[in-house]
Amino acid sequence: xxxxxxxxxRWQGRExxxxxVDGQLEDLLIDPAGDxxxxxxxILRGVVDRPVKGQxxxxxxxxxxxxxxxxxxxxxxxxxxxxQVTGATEPGKAAPVSLRVLFKSRHAIVTPGxxxxxxxxxxxxxxxxxxxxxxATKAMQGAAADxxxxxxxxxxxxxxxxxxxxxxxxxxxxxxxxADLSGGPELLVEAPGAHETAWRDWADPAPxxxxxxxxxxxxxxxxxxxxxxxxxxxxxxxxxxxxxxPTRALLAVDVNTGxxxxxxxxxxxxxxxxxxxxxxxxxxxxxxxITVDFAPMPKKDRGTLEQVLRAAFKGEASETTxxxxxxxxxxxxxxxxxxxxxxxxx
Length: 346
Prior knowledge:
By secondary structure, the chain is an alpha+beta fold. The protein has 8 helices and 20 strands.
């Protein structure tokens, strides 16, 4: 399977979407079972509850649960706020929410509280950028003064009419939702499903094929690719492997060289693991505190490996912090939990 292929299907009554590039699974979206209003991306009206001493935040009453907002200043118990769920809710914990609400479409993002008109940095043609700025200025006339706009890179392949339509839709939705502060906790905008998210976020670069026919997952052998993710073991070149194992406190990653135990083999295995780690975490829906026990290698090569890690995570949508090496020689990083773990969805 060559090229960039988006596959849309249904599985156990739920929407599923897969992004396959040259036969390799790059991203996977599966809607959770049930009608959970606190899915990542949902926008809700909440009521500020009590502050959490020592954690720099407050609980927010939400429909069917509570959220945790990492902000205290300017908030008072009983105050109504518009929030967006920013990540997967861990069992027994409040949903992570933010006052920074984003209204996203395929071509535009409206940003209440963050004024300004911006064009994606990936669009480098100055003429195109000027045209888009002019289009955005016209389309945002009449919007709230504190509502900003970001035009996404997918605008490059879209017509002015398509872009303007997206801007107007998001502008009007943002205005209506942000003004809806009357009443108790309520779901205002549902989280996008797998198909909508794929259409919105996998547009750049444009896919070579979109298959939404019945049985598309089976015909593209996506089922087999997903089954491989059920195992903690990830095969690497030359018999090396990477083992990814979630624990209650952190995510442990162990890199092994296989039959070749030389230091040169260790560096090769570590570089291969570093390059594939972002994809594996994305596909498995894993995040939080991550500790990587790389295969033995000379200390002088740590800088090279760290450069590979930084390059690998550079394009990731999920916020990731590379903390660095521990005294015992492991590498630590922190990745935002932006979706439910794959094993909970399967």
